[in-house]
Write a structure and sequence with these properties.
single chain; about 60 residues; alpha+beta; two-stranded antiparallel ribbon; about 20% strand
Length: about 60
């Protein structure tokens, strides 16, 4: 596993995992202890704007 690169990560619910099925077996549970609170807050500030051939991600001030 040391040679494998992480290409994506996500926060999934139990229902999401059910929909992905048994083939999706590389998930790691995270307890609800605010470990990711700052990251989630920063992600919540991102606005997605359509562009000609993709999207533009911009942060917004709260």
């Amino acid at each position: 596993m040391a040679t494998e690169r992480v290409v994506a990560f996500g926060f999934l619910t139990s229902r999401d995992l059910e929909l992905l099925g048994s083939g999706f077996n590389r998930h790691f549970p995270v307890t609800n202890d605010d470990l990711f609170a700052e990251l989630i807050d920063q992600l919540d500030r991102i606005e997605i704007e359509p562009a000609d051939r993709g999207i533009i991600l911009r942060t917004r001030d709260r």
